[in-house]
Amino acid sequence: MQITLSSQQSKVLESLSKQGGYTSLTDAIDTALVLLADEVTDSASAESPDYLAWVEQTRLKIEAGVRAAERGDLLEVDDVLTQLRSKVEAARSTSA
């Protein structure tokens, strides 16, 4: 399959590739597609009790993260990206 990207889409991917530390544009696109698939799956179950519980848990985690950041308790970006990439790889391996 061939996909033609607009110049704006190309710029976004190039920027993400450079800033996010992706090894290639393909890696950035793969990650974006996994995240999109997760979002679509989550939105399909937006009314389920499990989803609503997840939303509440996420809200609480964000609040805790904001409080930690205000105290100066921050994570290194490389560590966060490594964790996220590991989650994406785990999702890929379970869906294959």
Task: Provide structural commentary.
- This protein is an all-alpha fold.
- The chain has one domain.
- The chain is built from 4 helices and no strands.
- It is globular, with a radius of gyration of 16 Å.
- The chain starts with 6 loop residues before the first helix and ends with a helix.
Determine Rg (CA atoms, Å): 16 Å
How many DSSP-defined strands? 0
Distance between the termini: 19 Å
Structural class: mainly alpha
Largest sheet: none
Features:
mainly alpha; single chain; 96 residues; 77% helix; 4 helices
SSE inventory with pairings:
Blueprint: H1 7-19, H2 25-44, H3 49-70, H4 77-95
Helix pairs in contact: 1-2
What is the gist of this entry?
The protein has four helices and no strands. It has one domain (11-95). The model has no long low-confidence stretch (mean pLDDT 81).
